Amino acid sequence: MTKYETVIGMEVHAELLTESKQFCGCANEPMAAPNTHVCPVCLGFPGSLPVLNGKSVDLSLRTVLAFGSKINTDCIFERKNYFYPDLPKAYQISQRLLPLGEGGFVEIEMPGEDGTTQLKRVGLHDVHMEEDTGKSQHGQELSDADSSLIDYNRSGVPLLEIVSSPDMRSVEEAESYMNTLRQMLLYLEVSDCKMEQGRLRFEASVSLRPHGQEEFGTRVEVKNLNSMKAVRDSLRAEIARQTQLLDSGATVTQQTMLWDEVSGTTQPMRSKEQAHDYRYFPEPDLVPLQIDEAWLARVRDSMPELPRVRRERFQSALGLSPYDAALLTTTRDIADYYEATLQSLDKADGAAKTVSNWVANELLGRLNAENKTVVESPVAPAQLGELVKLIGDGTISGKIAKEVFDAMFESGRDAKSIIEERGLTQMSDSGELEAICRRVIAANPKAVEDYKGGKEKSFGALVGGVMKETKGRANPALVNELLKKQLSQ
Ligand SMILES: [Zn+2]
Fold it and tell me: Ligand 1 centroid vs 159 CA: distance in angstroms?
């Protein structure tokens, strides 16, 4: 253990999944050809007036409800003033004094010392609505090294900023927080969370303090984190840098640092602005946002089951292990697929576990190998359900089922038609199997002798022989029974 305790807070910006921008009708498509989705409002022309996007409020409300935040049903927008080329109005419409949500928490899971899972609440300071800025690109990012490009497609895209309290005490906790938050936003369908496109962005603030000290140390903000790995690596580097400073008796300066992926270090960007540097004042072009009970009720009704609740239900109601439940609730689509498959079956005993194995091992395995999501699965839930049914009623063996599944995955066809076409039905006719067993016994005198001499293992060779002759179609339980009977004669 080092001398210092790490204190981490996170600011998260999520671009919302609306069709249009926050205050104008332009399409929310920041990745389109540069400057193709712009208008006088998002270009900040004098005299243009913003109109708030209702869908964006719905999505923001869904998020604060999920966090259990206090909702300010009368909230206001403010102007945050600063100059930057990607901010054509020279102010960003944001919220400060009365944000949409205050407080609330995200519950993260951490491995406990005794192997159990410990829950920890990371408190939220506030959740507020704002708009994104444009995007500048310079030199080597473009084909022309001497030019700069300012793309305003992103200018005015609805943004939700989620500000945590400094409640995380390790890089692992910060990582768990990011993963949990991302999974929640995906379940809530408020953002597509594509970090590589900047649709979800993290900023961390880090400080150190001697163990046992209550007062926080000086914090440093780290920006330019465009992947989970960047957050992890930058936090480690920043903790090491501050540790070294403190150990040598120097002080940490409050500032904003940029993560440099190439050198693996954080580099100073500017001294940190204070809130008063932005000269916040109420946005005069927007009336206060008033959310009535009916609006809230409508959003509440649209809330999905959240990941952790679903995970716990998979364990308690379906009897899945914590590992399987976590795997099958990784995304809402996977959990939906699993449940749809289960619903297509009569609730036979063990179906939950059998289907879980098929989805987790065979389906997700194949999908991952082909870089596809479960939505793109060539095998529909009902088709997988039918396959499981055909194993259950003895039509095909578990071994053959894998071959059938492969064919289903490649062709998208039903299990039944593949089984019929390939003649794969399980052989459960004891007359036919008896004859095959006899032939295998006659052809393997050595194995028979060993088995009779007490070598149990040799029995497996005889079963294998029958399976080979029947191309895996023989009912294994019946083969065991017939072989034993014939060998005891
Ligand atoms: Zn616009």
Answer: 15
